Amino acid sequence: MLTVNAYAATSATEPLVRTTIERRDVGPNDVLIEIRYAGICHSDIHTVRGDWGPQHYPLAPGHEIAGVVTEVGSEVTRHRVGDRVGVGCMVNSCRECEYCRRGEEQYCREGNVQTYGAVDRDGTITQGGYTTHVVVNEDFAVRIPDALSLDAAAPLLCAGITTYSPLRHWNAGPGKKVAVVGLGGLGHMAVKFAHALGAEVTVLSQSLKKREDGLRLGADDYRATSDPETFERLADSFDLIINTVSAGIDISAYLGLLKVDGALVNVGAPAEPLPVNVFSLLLKRRTFAGSAIGGIAETQEMLDFCGEHGIAPEIEVITADQINEAYERVLASDVRYRFVIDIATLN
């Protein structure tokens, strides 16, 4: 076992603290990754605070991991020592069900193994990227293109793939009108991707305070949802709406913005249910859907797409001692647009 430095939650109510955790020995199909950077996702906060159910503590969160391979198992073929790699929201799956076989491990019939707070196949509880090292099966580490810096690449492993996957699945591109609800960690990446894919992009935000940012990131239009006229003027306008917020919104009102056969896809994950008026769906053959990250192959595709098109998240790099402050700032929407922890500050 390898003992490594970490920043972890000890309960649902206490601040995260410096500690150590143990990593398994490198097996034949494993790689040991020295983590250089880890993004802070809203999911980290929900999880450690028990919003999505009870957790095992201590718990080191973090599923936006970028680093360098420092050791490989005897049977590893995908990676070599020195490779720049990333680890996202999952570190294992059954590998045998229909979804795993077609490269959609995120929808594994038995449930994929989440990067932290999950029971791995060997019965241990997984620990995430707020640590100096991680050991993962080679199949769940993806290559980071040289064109991407490691600090900027880290948020792509969740915020990036979470927005790229539904845009691809619902065929965002030339001739399509896409709306993005919320301009935060997820939303700003959705804008960048939709623009790069050739769609016409509108940001729907509570206010216009980030309008300049939205247009700079690639949006063609920016509307305030606090203005009731927004929903009247934009009725029946969009082919696709990506909802990135992790709070309750009036889903039926947003469904009214879709054209016939349009889809509203939720990628944000509020703790409370989102009620829907079924007539908002029936009368225009609209779809209300959800999407969860992407498979390993699609994650690699997304990273390569970012490398080729010069796409990277807007980040603020922090030290490990600033994590608790960063959590409060995330909850206050006081970040543009993703905190990234410099893991060297854990040493």
TrEMBL record:
Similarity comment: Belongs to the zinc-containing alcohol dehydrogenase family.
What Gene3D superfamilies does the record point to? Medium-chain alcohol dehydrogenases, catalytic domain (3.90.180.10), NAD(P)-binding Rossmann-like Domain (3.40.50.720)
- Record carries keyword Repressor: no
Cofactor field:
Zn(2+)
What Enzyme Commission number(s) does the record list for this chain? 1.1.1.2
* Keyword annotations of the record: Metal-binding, Oxidoreductase, Zinc
InterPro entries linked = ADH-like_C, ADH-like_N, ADH_Zn_CS, CAD-like, ER, GroES-like_sf, NAD(P)-bd_dom_sf
Catalyses:
a primary alcohol + NADP(+) = an aldehyde + NADPH + H(+)
Q: Where is the Enoyl reductase (ER) domain?
A: 11-341
This chain's protein is named: alcohol dehydrogenase (NADP(+))
Task: Note the superkingdom of the native organism.
Answer: Bacteria
Cross-referenced PANTHER family, in alphabetical order? Answer: ALDEHYDE REDUCTASE (PTHR42683)
Q: Where are the transmembrane segments?
A: none
Recorded hits in Pfam families, A to Z, give:
ADH_N (PF08240), ADH_zinc_N (PF00107)
SUPFAM superfamilies referenced in this protein's UniProt entry, alphabetically: GroES-like (SSF50129), NAD(P)-binding Rossmann-fold domains (SSF51735)
Q: Which organism is it from?
A: Marinactinospora rubrisoli
The Gene Ontology terms for molecular function here are: oxidoreductase activity
Known PROSITE patterns for this protein? ADH_ZINC (PS00059)
